[in-house]
Amino acid sequence: MSTVEAKPHKVAHHFDSAEQEVAASKLGIWLFLCTEILMFGGLFVGYAIYKRMYPEIFLQGSTFLDWKLGALNTVVLLVSSLTMALSIYYAQKGQSSKSTSCLWLTLLCGFIFMGVKYIEYSHKLHLGLAPGAFFSYTETATLQGLPLYFSFYYCMTGLHGSHVLAGMVLIFWLIIRSHKKHFGPSYYTPLECVGLFWHLVDLIWIYLFPLLYLVE
Amino acid sequence: MSSNHHIVPFNVYIKVLSALLVLTVFTVLVAQMDFGVFNVLIAMGIATIKATLVLLFFMHLKYDNKLFPVIFLAGVFFLVVIFLFCEFDIMTRIPESSVL
Amino acid sequence: MSVNYLNEKKGLTSWLFTLDHKRIGILYMITVFTFFLVGGVFALLMRLELFGAGETFIPASVYNQFMTFHGAIMVFMVIIPGIPAFLGNFFLPLQIGAKDVAFPRVNLLSWYCLIVGSIVALCSLFFNGVDTGWTFYTPYSIRTDNGTLWVVLGAFIMGFSSILTGLNFIVTVHTLRAKGMGFFQLPLFVWSLYSTAIIQVLATPVLAITLLLLSAERIMGIGIFDPKLGGDPVLFQHFFWFYSHPAVYIMILPAMGVISELITTFSRKTIFGYKAIAFSSVGIAAVSFFVWGHHMFVSGQSEWVGVLFSFLTMLVGVPTAIKVFNWVATMYQGSIKFDTPMLYANGFLFLFVIGGVTGIMLATLAFDVHVHDTYFVVAHFHYVMVGGTLMAITGGLYYWLPKMFGRMYNEFWGRISFFLIFVGFNVTFFPQFILGFMGMPRRYHDYVPAYEPLNQLSTFGSWMIGLGFVVVFFVVLQALFKGEKASSNPWGAVTLEWQTDSPPPHENFHKTPVVGKNPYEYS
Amino acid sequence: MLYLLINSAEAAWLPVAATDLAKEVDQLIYFLLEISVLASILVIGGFVYFSIRFRRKSEADKPPAITHHYLLEFLWSFIPFVIFMFVFGWGWLVYDKMRDHPKNALEIHVYGQMWNWDFVYKNGRKSSRVLTVPVDKPVKLIMSSRDVIHSFFIPSFRIKQDVLPGSYTALSFTARKKGKFPVFCAEFCGAGHSSMLATVHVMGLREWEEWLVKDPYKGMSISQIGESVFQKSCTACHTATQEKRIGPGLAGLFGAKREFEKGGSLVVDENYIRESILNPSARVVKGYGNMMTPFAGLLQEEEMTGLIEYIKSLKIEQKDK
Question: Which superfamily is assigned to D222-313 in CATH?
Answer without folding.
Answer: Cytochrome c-like domain (1.10.760.10)
